[in-house]
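for the recovery benchmark. tokens below, seq after
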């Protein structure tokens, strides 16, 4: 699969999840980052620790573009795997910017910040692919807005399809 659009204009995929994560989640996030980079996608994260750091590391080590949108006014909290660190001074409000800069969103498990990113993505019509992410319910019924997958390869494949569809 080739994520590059016309004129070599790459797609952007946001990867969101907890600022703390277990070893299995970290490994999966690194693999997602690596696979996205191998396909030519730019990886957008919150730029700090946990899932953001792992996805950034995977993409960075594969030679990909990594972009972190930070809550602080300075770049001191940025993880070392970012090629571009954007300081905002917006605190958690910057969560909207993280997902709005992706053509698709891959979501891992996380706390309320991750939930807000998922909500912003869904409100704005972004395709959200979940790897152990939040489960949403409406009126007691499962809301299937988050497309659940079990592997990094599946997540990247769906994100690629969403990005191609959005940008064609």
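predicted aa per position
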């Amino acid at each position: 699969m080739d994520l590059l659009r016309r004129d070599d204009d790459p797609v952007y995929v946001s990867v969101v999840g907890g600022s703390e994560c277990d070893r299995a989640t970290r490994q999966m996030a690194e693999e997602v980052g690596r696979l996205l980079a191998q396909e030519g996608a730019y990886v957008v994260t919150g730029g700090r620790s946990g899932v953001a750091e792992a996805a950034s590391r995977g993409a960075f080590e594969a030679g990909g573009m990594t972009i972190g949108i930070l809550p602080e006014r300075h770049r001191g909290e940025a993880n070392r795997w970012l090629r571009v660190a954007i300081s905002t001074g917006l605190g958690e409000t910057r969560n909207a910017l993280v997902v709005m800069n992706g053509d698709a969103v891959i979501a891992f498990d996380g706390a309320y910040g991750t939930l807000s990113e998922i909500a912003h993505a869904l409100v704005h019509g972004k395709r959200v692919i979940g790897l152990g992410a939040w489960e949403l319910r409406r009126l007691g019924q499962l809301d299937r807005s988050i497309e659940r997958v079990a592997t990094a390869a599946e997540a990247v494949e769906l994100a690629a399809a969403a990005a191609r569809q959005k940008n064609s």
